[in-house]
Design brief:
Number of domains: 2
CATH topology of the largest domain: Rossmann fold
Radius of gyration: 20 Å
Number of strands: 16
CATH architecture of the largest domain: 3-Layer(aba) Sandwich
Helix content: 25-40%
CATH class of the largest domain: Alpha Beta
Structural class: alpha/beta
Order of helices and strands: EHHEEEEEEHHEHEHEHEEEHHEHEHE
C-alpha cells in the first residue's frame, strides 16, 4: 500500500528541533561521513539563476544516508536583484523532500527555514568540542561579525558549550546592532557591546564568528590573538591570504568547498592547498586527526554546508512530528 505523505510546516519545526538536537544530528552525520555511508547526487548541486527581469535563483542538492536509511532532496528558491535578497527570510522557498530509499515512496515534505538556519551554524560550532578553547569553565570573550540569522544562531549554539564574560558585535546598520546588544544583554545578563569596526570585534576575542552575506574579505588573520578560534560560515569571512598562517584549519568537506567560487580562487592563487589542511571535521570528530593540542593555537573552522546534514535533520524532524501527531497528511498518488 502506498503511504500518505507528511507535510511538516515551519511553525511545527520550531517545536521539533532544539539547538542541542541540531548539533547532535550534525555530529552524527560527520560520523556517517567517516564511515563512508553517505551517497551524493551527481552532479552534487544544481543551480538555475535567472537574472534579467526575474532575479530568480534555484538551488537543489540531494543525498542518501545509508545508516538511517533515508534519501532526500533539498531545494530552495530566492529573489536577489542586488538590492533585496530573500535568502534567510521566510518569504523564500525552502523544503526537503524525503523518500524511502528501499521503495522510492515519498515520506515527507519538511519546511527547512528553521532547520537550515540552525544547521548552518550547528555544523560548524559542534567542531569546537575538539577545536575550541580547552578550558570550558573559563568565561570567554566572543566576537560576532554579522548579527543576522547566522550570528544569532551561532550564539545559540555556542552557549551550549561555553560561558561568556563579554560579547562584541558589529553589523552594517548601527540601529540593528544596538537592538541586538540590548536584547541579548538582558537575556544573558552579561555585557553585549557594539563596535563600529570588525577589527574591534575580532581583536582580543577568544572565539570570533564570521557570518555575513558579503563577498568582501571581512576579517584579517593578524587580528586573531594566540589561542583564538575563528568560525567562518561563508565565502571570505577570513582573508584567504591568512589561512596558511593559522596553526590548524578544518573544513566540513574538501570536495564541496572546492566547487565554491571563492574557495577555488584561493586554491588557484596558491594561497592554500590540501596539504595545508589539518583535516575535515569528520576526521576530527572520529579522532582520525587531533583537535586542539595547545591553548595558544590559532584555529580556523570553515564550513560551506552539507546537504547530508540537511537531509538528516529533516528526517529527524519528520520522525518526531509523526510520533507527536504534528503536521498535515497529504494524499499520495496511489
Amino acid at each position: 500500500m502506498t503511504r500518505d505523505i507528511l507535510f511538516v510546516p515551519y511553525k511545527a519545526t520550531l517545536d521539533l528541533l532544539s539547538v542541542q538536537e541540531a548539533m547532535d544530528v550534525c555530529e552524527e552525520v560527520y560520523r556517517m561521513h567517516a564511515r563512508d555511508s553517505v551517497v551524493w547526487s551527481n552532479p552534487p548541486a544544481f543551480k538555475m539563476d535567472v537574472a534579467e527581469g526575474f532575479n530568480n535563483h534555484w538551488h537543489v542538492k540531494a543525498a542518501l544516508l545509508k545508516d538511517v536509511p533515508t534519501t532526500g532532496v533539498r531545494l530552495y528558491n530566492y529573489y536577489d536583484d542586488g538590492v533585496r535578497n530573500t535568502v534567510g527570510y521566510l518569504d523564500c522557498t525552502r523544503y526537503v523532500v524525503l523518500s524511502d530509499p528501499k521503495t522510492g515512496e515519498a515520506e515527507a515534505i519538511v519546511d527547512e527555514h528553521w532547520n537550515y538556519a540552525i544547521r548552518s551554524t550547528a555544523a560548524a560550532v559542534v567542531a569546537l568540542k575538539w577545536m575550541g578553547p580547552l578550558d570550558r569553565t573559563r568565561p570567554l570573550t566572543l566576537g560576532l561579525v554579522g548579527i543576522g540569522t547566522m550570528g544569532v544562531n551561532a550564539l545559540r549554539c555556542l552557549l551550549t558549550l561555553y560561558k561568556f564574560k563579554e560579547i562584541r558585535c558589529t553589523s552594517r546598520r548601527s540601529e540593528t546592532r544596538k537592538a541586538f546588544a540590548e536584547n541579548w544583554s538582558k537575556e544573558l545578563g552579561i555585557p553585549v557591546v557594539t563596535k563600529d569596526t570588525i577589527e574591534e570585534v575580532v581583536r582580543g576575542s577568544d572565539i570570533a564568528v564570521g557570518g555575513t552575506t558579503s563577498t568582501d574579505i571581512m576579517t584579517r588573520e593578524q587580528w586573531l590573538k594566540p589561542g583564538a578560534t575563528f568560525i567562518s560560515l561563508a565565502r571570505r569571512e577570513l582573508d584567504p591570504a591568512g589561512w596558511a598562517k593559522m596553526d590548524k584549519v578544518v573544513i566540513d568537506s574538501w570536495v564541496f568547498n572546492s566547487i565554491q567560487k571563492e574557495f577555488k580562487k584561493m586554491l588557484e592563487a596558491g594561497q592554500f592547498s590540501r596539504e595545508q589542511l589539518h583535516g575535515e571535521i569528520c576526521d576530527v570528530v572520529t579522532g582520525k586527526v587531533k583537535g586542539r593540542e595547545r591553548e595558544d593555537e590559532r584555529i580556523l573552522v570553515h564550513t560551506t554546508g552539507l546537504v547530508s546534514q540537511d537531509v538528516a535533520i529533516a528526517h529527524y524532524v519528520y520522525k518526531k512530528a509523526k510520533e507527536r501527531g504534528l503536521g498535515t497528511w497529504l494524499p499520495a498518488a496511489g
